[in-house]
């Protein structure tokens, strides 16, 4: 993660937690789908992936990420890149995500 | 990092009419079942049973599979569907062909009506196969799923071709053997070639995906593909030209293929990260368990042995029921609630996510109805096969009533989802996202 200030990075991740993967019911951050965020001047860039290539959710999650970040940070330009490398695996789920998956 | 493409999903009008038609077909077949209890007392070559079978395999199962595949092919093959227009034409041909075929069989009009229906259906299968094949050609990587799906669509075409030949044979009698001989061929190519291969191909990808399970080794699936196809080709060759006693051996090959598929799923399930199993997946597991029944019965009916003719006739019927109203229907009843809510949700909320609080796909249907649907289905299926085995029409009728209730509950949930519209959405207020 490349950010200008740690607080800002946390704020971006907290904002992205509002986007829920509709099939699994867990937010995309705890599911480990958000690979990297960076802020270069006024451009906030996010790299994220999906649980499987070809997932029909690609357009929806990309658009949701853009919309929620633009709403939260109206003074920034938001750029979302969908990537498949490294491929997502269940190892990327955070402990909080695992807790939710196991229904604890 | 390589950039990925955006969504490959087709338009909603390509997919959703298939679900609507399939739900109505399920209601129709359940109602027809209520009026067909007398048909289960004899041979399977009976106008009412032919009607029920074809409404089930075409209007219900194939229709839903076509619709679901148009949505899933881009997921499975990682590319856009070759032609949405072709998919809509295919829907029209399949729907009209199914209705005409059902009318022809119910009234046993085996002339022009049956022939027109058969040609419409064959045209539907041809367009579908072209669409699948061309889509697979565009895929960035040819996978084992592509092998299964493309081969299944080719077998569907062969099933349709045999059906056309039989439809014309009623009038012109040009085939050398009796009609039932080709009916067995037609049925087994459809069951093992079309349904089984397709379900293995799609299921081996989707079921682990829904369970969040690791599935990197596809060796078992490769062998499953070889065994099912090998068994089917040998069966066809033998059935047409040799007439040996080795049919149980070919059945064993197909059963071994299914066994490998189930083993693959079992190993995947061992690595699953997702512990909560929703009602749709529970019903899918019921379907996979029900698959064992036709696998056992295929040996009984293919070896025949010294069973009394009356019992053998009943076992043939139970064998057919266990495939069409057992495994296939159970699977569709479960997987509808894994695919349709997701499709509806995506179309209804795509523009709102990230700006408004949206429901989840699982919030789009009534869980209580789904729970009762699954229970009524299982009760109906058990009653139906018991009634057929014991030759007791009242028990068959009780099963048919349970099936009708199942179909009505299913159709209620399906049409509730199909008619769903986003409304009264509240914008986000930021706080604790996980709260």
Task: Note the main attributes of this structure.
heterodimer, A: 104 residues, alpha+beta, 3-stranded mixed β-sheet, 18% strand, B: 435 residues, mainly alpha, disordered N terminus
3D architecture notes:
The complex is a heterodimer of chains A (104) and B (435). Chain A starts with 5 loop residues before the first helix and ends with a helix. Chain A has 104 residues and is α+β, with helices and mostly antiparallel strands. Helix content of chain A is 32%, strand content 18%. Chain A has a three-stranded mixed β-sheet, with helices on one face. Chain A has helices at residues 6-16, 58-72, 95-101; strands spanning 34-40, 43-48, 77-82. The two termini of chain B are 33 Å apart. Chain B has 435 residues and is mostly helical. Mean pLDDT of chain B is 90; it is low at 1-6.
Write the layout of secondary structure elements.
The complex is a heterodimer of chains A (104) and B (435).
Chain A: H1 6-16, E1 34-40, E2 43-48, H2 58-72, E3 77-82, H3 95-101
Parallel strand pairs in A: 2-3
Antiparallel strand pairs in A: 1-2
Chain B: H1 12-34, H2 47-77, H3 84-106, H4 112-138, H5 144-172, H6 179-211, H7 219-242, H8 247-270, H9 279-290, H10 292-303, H11 309-349, H12 367-390, H13 393-418
Helix pairs in contact in B: 1-2, 1-3, 1-13, 2-3, 2-4, 2-11, 3-4, 4-5, 5-6, 6-7, 6-8, 7-8, 8-10, 9-11, 10-11, 11-12, 11-13, 12-13
